[in-house]
Amino acid sequence: MSLSDATYSSSRSEGRLLSWLLLPVALIALGPVVRLLLEGVGFGSGLTGAHLAEVLSADSTHRALLHSLVTAAGGTLLSVLIGGSFAFLVALTNVRARGALVFCLMVPMMIPPQITALAWMQVTGPSSVLLKMLGLAPPLGSPQPLHSAGGIILLLGIQHASIVFLTLRAGLRQIPADLVEAARMSGARGLRVWAQIVMPLTLPALGAGAAMAFVTALGNFGIPAMLGIPARYSTLPTLIYQRLVGFGPSVLSEVAVLALLIGTVAIAGVLLARWLLARKSYGLVGLSGQPLSISLGRARLPIEIALWTFIAAILALPLMALLFTSLIPAYGVPLTWANMTLEAWTEALLRQPMTRRAYVNSLGLALGASAILMAVCLPLAWLIARRPSRATRAIDALVDLPYALPGVVLSIACILAFLDLPFTDLTLYGTIWIILLAYLARFLVVMLRPVQASVGQLDPSMEEAASAAGARLGRRLRTIVLPLAAPAAAAGAILVFLTAVNELTVSALLWASGTETLGVVIFNLEDSGETVMASALAMSIVLLIVCLMAGVQLLARRLPKGVVPWQS
Amino acid sequence: MAELIYSGLTKQFDGAARPALDGIDARIESGEFVALLGPSGCGKTTLLRLTAGFEEPTHGEIRMGATQVAGPGRFVPPEDRGVGIVFQSYALWPHMTVAGNVSYPLEVRGLPRAERARRVDEALALTGLTEFADRAPAQLSGGQRQRVALARCLVAEPRAVLLDEPLANLDLALRASMQDNFTAFHRRTGATMLYVTHDQGEALALATRVAVMEGGRIRQFAAPEVLYSEPVDCFVAGFVGDGAVVSARAAGPLGPGGLEVETMGLRLTARGRAALPTHLCIRPEDVRLTDEGGLRARVRGCTYQGGRFRVALDTGGEDLVAFSRTRLNVGAQVGLRIDRPWAFREPGMPALAVQETAHV
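YS: structure for the whole thing
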């Protein structure tokens, strides 16, 4: 390569110019995490070894860590049971209406966890409108059964079942049908095939799915906040939240230690999942042309009924309870045809300045994040695919980090990074910009992966043909790459939008008066006893989310495989 | 149109043990139709991609007419080279119509709308695609897509047209008719064309000259009939055309009509230009099945090829190929005569004197 440094053409220097994009991406996506790590090793404000030891040896830390591990492990177990059963039944057998089943199983994951918690709280407890209508409500004054470790575990398990489901189904799809056919030729049937052939082959995928569900459950803030805080049952994320809300940025170095602690546990889980998934890839060489489809025979109808009943229980029941609560005139009153009112809806959506502001903030943040990420990810994906270098490979490997880390960890990292902007007296803490930056860091990978899949599938000769036709890099990106990657970018943008609107964990620590997000407002409304209005607001968000998901579903046919998370 | 000149062109990919191209020197005249022929991995596609500007050479230079497009300290990117390229995958842009694909190079050049429309119509008419102008590429057959790619490449009046295995994805019948298309097209436009293929039938049928490549080098660059009748080494002799390559040595001095050689225990007259040849290239046409011949052989196989049989023969040591009008039984003994085969010297092989009795 002796001569390549000499005179460079304009197109090569355009490519080089584009490489500068990597710098802001690295700064925003990875800067805060790096800053948090530096805090851990004693950089910056006065964190010393003594401080570290003090926080790590505190009773409250131990208790919260234990609670985090217990609820995450219990939730994971439940997720494996639910997601695993669904995956085996949907991917391996001939049950009907699989698409609808999968879509319904995915909805709980897309609904914000604090809404899930709020909805379930309307199913149980003495004030449940649903139970009152059925005459089953426990007497007033009896405790809300979900305000307990068991309640947290139940909801975490339901919320993250789809993670296990998706990973396991992807693994099951890779099993060539002829492996099962060979087992049947050898005389094995039914459960024996499942236990001796299918199960061992999918164990790594199941393990990986469980590890991912564990990491997600560990970082979940909405459910333990709604159910745990009233019962004085703290997990690490809620402990961090309570400290920071109670004492402000003065306890920053203390909560940084907690954030590092939970981050370490989460990273261990992510690495375990990756290791398990990497193991999976060997051994399964075969013709995977025919997917497995085991006939259930006469058991099909009962199994289908069971699956749909279960969906009704985990999805329709809580949402119905939420809807009923949103329609009553005051909390505690049973719902009748006579007193049904949209008062709470109009109050929440039209009159309350806080909720309207939250809608504006959340939608604005979600729109802003999707638009910026769309503009960044197209050239970024192109760089990673077409101009690979050490820098692009590093970015490619590390952008998962802000998304995989629990939201509280990223929030603390962002506060540390943006509290005092270098070289200025400015701070972003308390402004909407810190939330936007945190969203950009966290959701970069949500946008990047679909666009990457799409750009990766593009035949490089498409661009070479344009190049030979005289088009320079900018024009090629605009006229060839952009239109062809547009469906994936659109899907990515909707996913970012969905996740950002859902989001509570990051904004719970970053919001200030005036910059509330929807997640924060629901949480605060419920916290201050405005359950009916919280329900109405939550219900409106659920409707919005289901519409957006349906939009992605309609796009699905035009997208490369793997872009829509609930399809494959 | 311009000639293409390569001097000392070398391409070493990062991490590869051998260079993909190893000191290519060649000159392609303006308006010539040249085929690059060779097995996969021989460097033919790399040479095409270097010509287009998709890759940069490690050493050496490429000139198009008077301009150096790649060389020490200079690299003209593909968009400024003014070459057209037709890819094996056609690389049609699926989000544009046929007319949109064809007009893209003109849009990029900023031509006025009326001029653009006129030239697109012209190119579509030339390739017989006028009625498909508003179709999407996905709605076309393989042959039609091929023609769109060709129209798109020609509309910009390139200085050279590069074709990367353009017929590899078409079925046999379509290939034949597309070959006729290319020849007619070359005649009409007079474009300099560089055609990469691993199919020797295609190369020999289409090109005015063929460069046979192997291991990153050009082994022989000559007209198709010369490649067939006068190969320079064992690789070209074996790769192009049917027949056999057997070892031989000179048994007489080189004259204007050739020389006496000794092979398979008999002496015969061969054509040639090397005083000390090491091998003979014996085409099936050079072998006559006759009982008067000095050589006996056993029939190893006999396949019908339409109008004649191809006979594989074993002379006890060397395998030969002959044509026969009648079917011969496998295992039968036949006599044969070898008529003026081509004698050449394999580079790097020692040639032995004639009087020695030991085999080479």
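YS: worth flagging: The domain at 12-45+351-527+536-559 of chain A is CATH 1.10.3720.10 (MetI-like fold).
IM: good catch. Also Chain A touches chain B through 28 residues (CB under 8 Å).
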